[in-house]
Write a structure and sequence with these properties.
Rossmann fold; 212 residues; alpha/beta; seven-stranded mixed sheet
Length: 212
């Protein structure tokens, strides 16, 4: 059961959003945090009845939908739609994103988080000749699609969205040394590495977009 909170996704949430759709809501943890910080309605979508049962306790509504087999139900329009680590689980994420357009309220925003299949640790695995699916992580066995920095952006633009903000979330490998450096110094190194090589050091990509 997915219960993690993706803090960078929360930080991307625009101000003054009153109605939010969390696609791939898991047990509703992110939506619960959002509702604790602002007065809003949060509706969650998940493929799991067990997750929906938990999410229903903290969200305004939680629905079970197999996004690979069915369209979203008629649940109106939203100020913000969140797709955090869900698009890689879909057969046709571009078609899904295109169909989302009519679910946005005027000035509505889309938040997307995608795992980076070319993170440096995964590149080392590929160099060693390893292409193995795992339980969770970048090579989760339930991933149908894989993205790097460029193809992640292409997914959004080719689905009819304008990217307003983007970043790679990750760190520069500083084993042992990191503990000896001031936090501001290590954070500065991380940010410089991510800015210069987002597709190498980012383990996930974050995007804020709007329907074009």
């Amino acid at each position: 059961m997915y219960e993690a909170i993706n803090q960078p996704v929360f930080s991307y949430l625009p101000d003054h959003t009153k109605r939010i759709l969390d696609i791939g809501c898991g047990a509703g943890n992110l939506g619960a945090v959002i509702k604790n910080h602002r007065d809003c309605e949060v509706i969650g979508i998940t493929y799991s009845q067990a997750e929906a049962d938990q999410a229903a306790q903290v969200l305004d509504l939680a629905l079970v939908v197999d996004l690979n087999a069915a369209a979203l139900p008629d649940i109106g329009q939203f100020d913000c739609i969140i797709c955090s680590h869900v698009l890689e689980h879909l057969y046709q994420p571009q078609h899904f994103l295109a169909k989302l357009h009519h679910h946005f309220a005027p000035q509505g925003k889309l938040i997307v988080a995608l795992p980076n299949v070319l993170h440096w640790k995964q590149r080392l695995e590929f160099l060693k000749g390893h292409f193995k699916y795992t339980e969770g992580g970048l090579m989760d066995r339930t991933h149908f699609r894989f993205f790097d920095w460029q193809t992640a952006q292409d997914l959004l633009t080719q689905s009819g969205y304008q990217i307003l903000q983007s970043e790679a979330d990750g760190s520069f490998p500083l084993p042992v040394i990191r503990k000896l450096l001031p936090t501001t110094t290590s954070q500065g190194i991380d940010q410089a590495a991510l800015n210069r090589f987002p597709g190498l050091f980012g383990f996930q990509f974050l995007f804020l977009a709007s329907p074009a």
